[in-house]
Amino acid sequence: xxxxxxxxxxxxxxxxxxxxxxxxxxxxxxxxxxxxxxxxxxxxxxxxxxxxxxxxxxxxxxxxxxxxxxxxxxxxxxxxxxxxxxxxxxxxxxxxxxxxxxxxxxxxxxxxxxxxxxxxxxxxxxxxxxxxxxxxxxxxxxxxxxxxxxxxxxxxxxxxxxxxxxxxxxxxxxxxxxxxxxxxxxxxxxxxxxxxxxxxxxxxxxxxxxxxxxxxxxxxxxxxxxxxxxxxxxxxxxxxxxxxxxxxxxxxxxxxxxxxxxxxxxxxxxxxxxxxxxxxxxxxxxxxxxxxxxxxxxxxxxxxxxxxxxxxxxxxxxxxxxxxxxxxxxxxxxxxxxxxxxxxxxxxxxxxxxxxxxxxxxxxxxxxxxxxxxxxxxxxxxxxxxxxxxxxxxxxxxxxxxxxxxxxxxxxxxxxxxxxxxxxxxxxxxxxxxxxxxxxxxxxxxxxxxxxxxxxxxxxxxxxxxxxxxxxxxxxxx
Length: 478
Description:
The chain is an all-alpha fold and 478 residues long. The chain has helices at residues 2-7, 14-30, 33-36, 46-49, 56-70, 76-82, 87-96, 108-124, 132-142, 151-163, 170-173, 215-231, 235-246, 256-273, 285-294, 296-307, 310-319, 321-326, 330-347, 357-363, 374-387, 415-445, 447-477, and strands at residues 354-356, 392-394, 399-402.
């Protein structure tokens, strides 16, 4: 172990760094648990004396050896030694929040094992929330761009859903996924320690930092992200992620998760748009047919919603209560009923700039549980303004003034807020350009691309040869 730590001091430029790290990992793999645990529970314990950021690879091996030495978290006595506020848990947390993101590329299997152990402990304690912070920190330290989907992403979203936590999830699920992990590292790839244009070049299955993912797991991730946004009532984002699930290209039959996503997509679409959504253009005809046949009750509810009659919508909701409960969608259906009035009032802005509250009550009477109750309508509209971002105001004379867009009065945002939004949008565009440029570079270096260029070149040469022979024949005839 002393030799390994001495080698750690020799990390230099990329080729030397790579050579030293591979030697360190090879030596660590040959050490016995007894050697790694030397000095355990004494002042000489390496786990207490090493800096997890400077010596990330050796520290990780020592930490895993300590955890294994304690035993299986399924045992209550073992769990006592691994629970939060225990010495080992604090060390696991500290490591996952401070490890060196480059060194860790050489010990991906071990890091993934540690992350899974932390999640296992959290579930064994029936406290999934305790693993959210360290797992989130680990994901973002491995890849701060969040551009490559990994198996840890999927585990993280499950943690957040089990713990019913959405705020902490946004740092991970709010990042755009540009890449899926490949099976192996391409031959023309840089060293793991090099500066990479995109995280997909080192976040591979071969690196151990992620498991191999199936297309069903991709769909499950997007579905989980949609559920997280639904917890936040961010219907726009939830709608977008659900749509990614249902229009995912499939070779065979429609999957169960696509059916579940479609059910929620129909309901979330009503909450988001205030009207039924057309089937996405990218959905295959057979998939669209399967979804409509399986989810007929949801499409029927959406059509009735379009009529704007609350009484009929409530009757349909009561008639299909077993369907909604069977799909775990009763809560969404209840919100859909309540949203009918919200969208009816909001849509008045397409026709009127201002109108009296008694006129609002009359115009939306069919959508309200309290038809023609002006006082209740006033309270409801005020809640829309205060809690749901409805860009309007109620005048002292009892008139509702509705803005045509978020840029218009009466409650338009400040210039500073708009500039902040523009800056965020600009950063997203820059990040997208970087990912596209990196993908183009990788494509141009791939063997498949080069082979295709050679084929095109040979084809053009043959065409030129044929044209030359034809020209010679024409001259001979002359």
